[in-house]
Structure formats: C-alpha cells, structure tokens
Write a structure and sequence with these properties.
With about 210 residues, the protein is of the alpha/beta class. It is about 35% helix and about 20% strand. It is globular, with a radius of gyration of 16 Å. The protein binds guanosine-5'-diphosphate (GDP). The site of guanosine-5'-diphosphate has 18 residues, from α2.
Length: about 210
C-alpha cells in the first residue's frame, strides 16, 4: 500500500504538474519512429480492457486524452503524451491478451512493446496494470518475465478497485505483493486505483514524478 509513501507536499507537487499541459505527441508503429530520448518516460502496459486508457485519462485529468482502446487502429501503436512544459512523457504500450490464443498476442506485444522496453534508456518505470478483480494472470506473468529480462523497473497498478470491497482490495494487494516479492525488477509497492472514483490517482501521479525525478 502507499500509506506513507508520499507526503502532502509530494502529492501536491504532482497534482500541480498534471494540472498543467498534457498533450498527445504521436503514435509510433516501429522503433525508428519513436521520439528522441531527451525526456524521462514512464510506460503503461496491461491486458486489453484492463482500464489503461481510463487510467491515463484520470492521471492527466483529461477525459479523452488516451483514446479508448476499442477504437480501431490505435491499439498496436505505442502512443506518447507530453506532460507539463516538456517535463516528462507518458507512454501507452499496446494492450495484450485479448485473443483466445494469448501467445500470439503476447508476441505482438513483445515485438514493438518489448523492443521499446529494451531499447529505451530514458524509460524510468513501467506500470503494469492488473484488473483488481482478476489479479495476475499467466499473460501478466509473461509480461513480468519480459520486464525482468529487459531489466526494466516495473510497478503493479491494480485497476477498477471500486468494483471490490475495501477488504477485498487489501487482499488482492497483499496477494500480488507476495507474488512479486522474488521478481528482480518489480517495484515493491502495489498501488490500487480507480479511475472511476479517483482512488489512488494522486499517489500514481506522485509515483510518476518520483520515477522521473522532475
Ligand atoms: P483499456 O482497454 O485497457 O484501455 O481499457 P479502458 O480504459 O478502455 O476500460 C475498459 C473498460 O473498463 C471500460 O468499459 C471502462 O469504462 C471500464 N473501466 C476502466 N476503469 C475503470 C474503473 O476504475 N472502474 C470501473 N468500474 N470501470 C472502469
């Protein structure tokens, strides 16, 4: 949990940053189309429908900054958003795990998504989104293995926490924390969020600011 992770000052600084500019920069379909590595970046990854677009919209306070993933054409791109006065970028990675044959989809994610994760020196942290009702699935474990191999620091963010009772949220946080304890690149804090209710959003903004050291 994040109880004492951030003081009021850190939360306020993060709020102010995200109350400023937030703009879509570009969508890349290949590694040679990525923007320069001049700004710190944090990336968002997760199974399709996990609530990734909603979370990016909630963090930035923009209703439709990240297009909803069911809009055709956008889902396989790596989408970049610039925050503040060119302070950092949020990166929306392709969703994975939506086909019956998850292996092929994971492969797709592992192509551009993995290439991005491997080849991005300015990537400060990846947020791996997990639906709090479902917990970690096999495809998520595969994604974590990819992060561990690429030595990319990643943090589990539970989504849609409003769909559970507080005690159930605490349970899934504890279970998830236990599961990632031995994963080398996993960040130990698991954060429960709700884009719908705003739960955990100030803390996630503070995590981003801390990761990017802005
Ligand atoms: P994506 O495919 O990961 O980008 O997921 P979306 O952001 O498009 O969300 C998928 C579905 O989950 C949509 O129907 C959203 O309304 C719903 N959803 C997303 N976030 C939340 C949340 O915090 N609470 C609830 N109850 N539903 C959510």
């Amino acid at each position: 949990m994040t109880d004492a992770a951030f003081d009021a000052e850190a939360l306020e600084a993060a709020r102010v940053l995200f109350a400023g500019e937030a703009n879509f920069l570009m969508g890349a379909v290949a590694m040679d189309g990525l923007p320069d590595t001049d700004l710190p970046e944090v990336a968002f990854a997760g199974r399709s429908n996990v609530g990734k677009s909603s979370l990016i919209n909630a963090v930035t306070g923009r209703l439709r900054l990240a297009r909803f993933s069911n809009e055709p054409g956008r889902t396989r791109e790596v989408n970049f958003f610039v925050i503040g006065d060119n302070q950092l970028r949020l990166v929306d990675l392709p969703g994975y795990g939506f086909a019956r044959a998850s292996k092929g989809v994971v492969k797709k994610f592992q192509n551009l998504g993995r290439d991005y994760l491997r080849g991005r020196p300015n990537l400060k942290r990846a947020f791996l989104l997990i639906d709090s009702r479902h917990g970690l699935k096999e495809v998520d474990e595969e994604a974590m293995a990819a992060f561990d191999t690429a030595a990319v620091s990643y943090q589990i963010i539970l989504t849609k926490a409003d769909k559970l009772k507080p005690s159930e949220v605490a349970d899934v946080v504890a279970r998830t924390q236990a599961k990632i304890a031995k994963r080398p690149a996993a960040f130990p804090r698991v954060l429960a969020t709700s884009s719908e209710k705003g739960t955990g959003i100030p803390e996630l903004r503070a995590e981003i600011v801390q990761a990017c050291a802005v």
